[in-house]
Amino acid sequence: MIIVMQKHTSEENIERVVAEVKAFEASHGNPDVSFKLATGNVGVMAATNEAVDAAQWPIMTCVFGAVIFLCLVSYRSVRGTLCILIPLGLVSVLSYALMAMLEIGLKVSTLPVAALGVGVGVDYGIYLYSRFREYYRGGDSLREAYFKTLEVTGNGVLFTGITLAVGVATWIFSPLKFQADMGLLLAFLFLMNMVGALVLLPALARFLLDDGTRHRA
Description:
Elements: H1 11-28, H2 41-75, H3 78-101, H4 111-137, H5 142-169, H6 177-208
Helix pairs in contact: 1-2, 2-3, 2-4, 3-4, 3-6, 4-5, 4-6, 5-6
């Protein structure tokens, strides 16, 4: 069974071809004869897509699991860990929504970007929360602790986030599609993780922390 396709084969076409081959095998195959996808662009791309799809959740689970474990060990606080983790998880979900909106498929080049965005993005939250925790446990109110944190760490987080986002955003103009996709996703992850740490983290602290849990922050 030979299938000829154009060079620029979309993911939807590949999935349709694979489904047709499997349906044909199910209806015409027997113990002595089976129909399988051969080599070539379609076969290789189909196998790659299946491998990436299978690895997606184990990789993200391991990345988030490592972040949760290290935050719990470092701060010994579930509330503090949630303040750091929730913005990170929200931005990851938004990155998948962006991929769906722009029709950027989950592939070999974009899956590592999602994991990298978590690993780099968590730094913003750690920088801010560590300084905020120091002031808050020292007796300052939530408002005072956050303003002092912005004075010391806020500018550094803002500058770092914008610099990283602008740097990788230049990849968007690359003629290589995979590099352009990576640049767009990385710029989004760097920028939104920075915004989440500066805006959402203190809002979560306002609801999750209070004077009674000051020494467990």
